[in-house]
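Throughout our pipeline, every protein is held as a single compact record rather than as scattered files. Nothing more is needed to write down the fold, since each code stands for a local backbone conformation. For reference, a complete record is included directly beneath this paragraph.
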Amino acid sequence: MAYDEKLAGRTRELIAAVQSNIEEKKMFGGLCFMVNNKMCIGVEKDRLMVRLDPSVYETALEKDGCTPMDFTGRVMKGYVFVDKTMLQTKKQLSYWVDLALDYNSFAKPSKKRTK
């Protein structure tokens, strides 16, 4: 199993309750939820990847189980990993999903790569 399917299902339910323009893409060895054609949140192994407002990035890192996203060996500001041990309740998971969805409404879409 490349990613925690139960965590992905719980995340999917929370996003679908408030968003309709959702696409799921397999990437980074996990599952990414694209909202409004923008990377929003994902499940990678046994952790959540959250795209959030860079202005709340430092505050988010103070939360237990939250670490900088360094998937490529380089820290990506505005993206964090949250360990699934800190996502046991609906309230805990909703906190991170809401942060990602709040930022998604005004985040810039990724640039499309030309083939």
The mean pLDDT is 92.
